[in-house]
């Protein structure tokens, strides 16, 4: 791998993170490795990304993360497959099949189920094709049958496992915490306890029963101690550290008090603190369950996109259509798509006609009609007709795969606004530990005793919530980019999503962006006694012999019978001289034909309107003027109006002359026109606007727009644009509807507003909660915070942040 003058991006899964302090610790550990640059950890997606400018030993990265108290895993690329096998009769057969498949490179976890005559295995589709698996099965003497494949999405399974784990922990801990709370606090609320555990009659039994009930809860929450406490000694304390220290102190004091009661000091019976440790762990387990449940919904957009791709397709093999795994489709294969089926890969229609629902890709609800030679997109749904198509793009290169990768990258990235939370999180947990220690010492010094002082310290430890800080930005970015993908608006990263809300000027390329990008015949004006139909027949007959865009527009506008053209001669920059049905015909600009002053005035008027006049003369006399124009998109005017209402300046940039440019600009309501710009100068014009202090968005679709797209603060490529424009842009519109520009800016504004709400809540919660827990208001108003209430507040703080972010899924734009 060459690293000269470029950087290679690496991405891994980080396990064991719980809060913003964890994020900071991992980033700090990895940044110390020579050759690693710009490490970014996203708490919501649990991904670590960084760039390397030279050869870096992966083992050093893994070791650095492990030393910080976390674990690193490579992102799995495996898929799970289940294949029917015919001909197996005994254990020896199953062993033979397992052995044959197991030898293949890129296969793991091969398992044969003899009772169902199937074999399941995981394989890397980048290394192995299913066809190779079938060949080794046949070579072993058995017949491979139908195949069912499913995406092996480890992150999804991991999230489901985490949700199930926290649910089990909560149910288990709650089952012990509820009777523990009743026994510990019930007598204070008038509930009577059996004499055997009555604190006044049998104080030791009262304490021992609570200890017995607390031990299972502590075991259920052992991660707080096994991970949190060691992180304190590693110099990277996190949320687990705070909870572990708080509940550990309460539990330890409870054991100490129990021993004192056993020694006859019954005064300790009123302050055991077992219930604080048990209930806090139960509440935080509930909070973690709800948080993970909510976070699982943030990646709905990715899962919806992944589910668009069918698992199998009907591929022509020796004149018969066979059902094969989608991974086996190759470029050039002929596929049959029946009504109701999803189109497997990108391709071109060979025969047949139908309507295709592209809403999940482009965001447009109206189905698209297709016929022979139409382009189709993998993952879209065929509605009402069968057709055959040729695969042109397969695997990871399909548009759907590229969209999924783009959304995944965006959701794993960090927005600049997250830096504030990152800085705070680096000092947050150590600051809380100091505050907790100071709180304990102050109240002890003031003479409030060990129990009261410890209660205040525990409340400080368990109310502080670095989770809310860590989740405030990434969850909103995930939901915002996912919502954008559902609307056909793809943000490349979090920075693009954030910057878009600041846009003050939008520069539109004219051709193919504001206009349709292809000339059309919009009108025919005849002179004298010439009939329109006859002129069109003659013009189309001549134009059919040429590939010039203007001639293509003329021939495409006529569907009747053509005349024989006996001679044809093209003159560059002027027009065509031809003989049709024995008549000499000229078709071109006004300099190529003879016009009267009145006819010339009419031609000039057309030019001033932004239309291209093509003059047709028959036997030396002007017969007609064909008006050709690059038609303005229907949605351009509404899009410009929407942007103006937001206070955004609009510009149009084109290589056309100023008269033509102004004519188009007037149609859509753009006052600022930059005309006669050479392709290589477009980026300079954008740079000039940036120097004026404007935050500039460039909208384009062509190769010559790419430098300008890259130069702008935000580059937007429309969906019909070239691959180069799409690769260069910060935002990609999957449809040609320019109204999506307004929607992209509005979505960005709503997402940033949501992030600011989350950050405000996270900071406000901690700024108010920590002093309250420390007893700042106790001396003034007698207000103190019970550690269990503090634990409940911590448990639900991060849930509230994630829930607020999820509101973006419902936002109407």
UniProtKB/TrEMBL annotation:
One annotated GO biological process: copper ion homeostasis
Residue stretches making up the HMA domain: 8-73, 79-145
Segments passing through the bilayer: 170-197, 203-221, 242-261, 273-290, 424-444, 450-473, 759-781, 787-806
Major localization listed first in the record, in broad terms: membrane
One Gene Ontology cellular component annotation held by this UniProt entry: plasma membrane
Pfam family, one: Hydrolase
InterPro entries from the UniProt entry: ATPase_P-typ_cyto_dom_N, ATPase_P-typ_P_site, ATPase_P-typ_TM_dom_sf, ATPase_P-typ_transduc_dom_A_sf, ATPase_P-type_domA, HAD-like_sf, HAD_sf, Heavy-metal-associated_CS
Keyword Thylakoid found: no
Keyword Hydrolase set for record: no
Subcellular location: Cell membrane
Name assigned to this protein: Copper/silver-translocating P-type ATPase,heavy metal-translocating P-type ATPase, Cd/Co/Hg/Pb/Zn-transporting
């Amino acid at each position: 791998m060459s690293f000269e003058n470029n950087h290679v991006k690496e991405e891994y899964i980080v396990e064991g993170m719980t809060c913003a302090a964890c994020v900071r610790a991992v980033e700090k550990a990895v940044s110390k490795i020579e050759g690693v640059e710009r490490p970014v950890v996203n708490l919501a997606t649990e991904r670590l990304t960084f760039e390397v400018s030279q050869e870096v030993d992966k083992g050093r990265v893994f070791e650095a993360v492990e030393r910080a108290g976390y674990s690193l895993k490579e992102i799995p690329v495996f898929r799970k497959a289940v294949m029917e096998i015919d001909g197996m009769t005994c254990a020896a057969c199953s062993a033979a099949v397992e052995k044959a498949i197991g030898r293949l490179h890129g296969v793991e976890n091969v398992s044969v189920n003899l009772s169902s005559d199937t074999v399941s295995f995981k394989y890397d589709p980048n290394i192995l094709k299913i066809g190779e698996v079938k060949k080794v099965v046949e070579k072993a003497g058995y017949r491979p049958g139908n195949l069912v494949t499913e995406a092996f999405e480890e992150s999804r399974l991991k999230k489901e496992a985490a949700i199930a784990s926290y649910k089990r922990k909560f149910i288990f801990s709650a089952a012990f915490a509820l009777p523990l709370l009743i026994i510990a606090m019930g007598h204070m609320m008038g509930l009577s306890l059996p004499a055997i555990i009555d604190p006044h009659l049998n104080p030791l039994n009262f304490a021992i029963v609570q200890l017995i009930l607390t031990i299972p809860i502590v075991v259920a929450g052992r991660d707080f101690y096994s991970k949190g406490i060691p992180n304190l000694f590693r110099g990277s304390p996190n949320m687990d550290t705070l909870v572990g220290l708080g509940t550990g102190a309460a539990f330890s004091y409870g054991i100490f008090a129990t021993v004192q009661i056993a020694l006859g000091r019954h005064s300790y019976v009123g302050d055991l603190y077992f219930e604080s440790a048990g209930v806090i762990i139960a509440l935080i387990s509930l909070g973690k369950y709800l948080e993970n449940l909510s976070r699982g919904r943030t990646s709905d957009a990715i899962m919806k996109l992944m589910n668009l791709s069918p698992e199998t397709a009907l591929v022509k093999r020796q004149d018969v259509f066979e059902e094969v795994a989608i991974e086996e489709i190759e470029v050039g294969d002929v596929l049959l798509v029946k009504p109701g089926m999803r189109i497997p890969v990108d391709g071109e229609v060979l025969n047949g006609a139908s309507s295709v629902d592209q809403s999940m890709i482009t965001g447009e609800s109206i189905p698209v009609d297709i016929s022979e030679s139409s382009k189709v997109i993998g993952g879209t749904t065929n509605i009402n007709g069968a057709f055959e198509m040729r695969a042109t793009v397969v695997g990871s290169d399909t548009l759907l795969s590229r969209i999924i990768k783009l959304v995944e990258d965006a959701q794993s990235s960090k927005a600049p606004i997250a830096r504030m939370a990152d800085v705070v999180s680096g000092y947050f947990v150590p600051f809380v530990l100091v505050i907790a220690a100071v709180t304990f010492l102050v109240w002890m010094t003031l003479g409030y005793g060990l129990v009261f002082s410890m209660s205040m310290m525990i409340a400080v430890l368990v109310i502080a919530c670095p989770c809310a800080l860590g989740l405030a930005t990434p969850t909103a970015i995930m939901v915002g980019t996912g919502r954008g993908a559902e609307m056909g608006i793809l943000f490349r990263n979090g920075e693009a999503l954030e910057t878009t809300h600041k846009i003050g000027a939008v520069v539109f390329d004219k051709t193919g962006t504001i206009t349709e990008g292809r000339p059309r015949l919009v009108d025919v004006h005849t002179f004298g006694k010439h009939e329109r139909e006859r002129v069109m027949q003659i013009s189309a007959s001549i134009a059919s012999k040429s590939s010039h865009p203007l001639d293509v527009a003329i021939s495409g506008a006529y569907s009747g019978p053509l005349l024989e053209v006996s001679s044809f001669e093209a003159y560059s920059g002027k027009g065509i001289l031809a003989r049709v049905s024995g008549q000499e015909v000229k078709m071109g600009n006004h300099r190529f034909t003879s016009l009267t002053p009145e006819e010339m005035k009419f031609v000039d008027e057309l030019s001033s309107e932004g239309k291209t006049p093509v003059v047709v003369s028959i036997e030396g006399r002007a017969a007609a003027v064909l008006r050709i124009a690059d038609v303005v998109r229907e949605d351009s005017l509404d899009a410009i109006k929407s942007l103006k209402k937001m206070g955004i300046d609009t510009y149009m940039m084109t290589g056309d002359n100023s008269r033509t440019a102004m004519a188009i600009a007037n149609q859509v309501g753009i006052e600022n026109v930059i005309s006669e710009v050479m392709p290589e100068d477009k980026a300079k014009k954008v740079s000039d606007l940036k120097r004026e202090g404007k935050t500039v968005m460039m909208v384009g679709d062509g190769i010559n727009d790419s430098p300008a797209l890259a130069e702008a603060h935000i580059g937007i490529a429309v969906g019909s644009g070239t691959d180069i424009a799409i690769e260069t842009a910060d935002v990609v519109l999957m449809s040609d509807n320019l109204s999506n520009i307004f929607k992209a800016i509005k979505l960005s504004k709503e997402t940033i507003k949501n992030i600011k709400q989350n950050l405000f809540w996270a900071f406000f919660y901690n700024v108010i909660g920590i002093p309250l827990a420390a007893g700042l208001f106790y001396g003034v108003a007698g207000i103190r915070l019970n550690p269990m209430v503090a634990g409940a507040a911590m448990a639900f703080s991060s849930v509230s942040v994630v829930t607020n972010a999820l509101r973006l899924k419902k936002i109407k734009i």
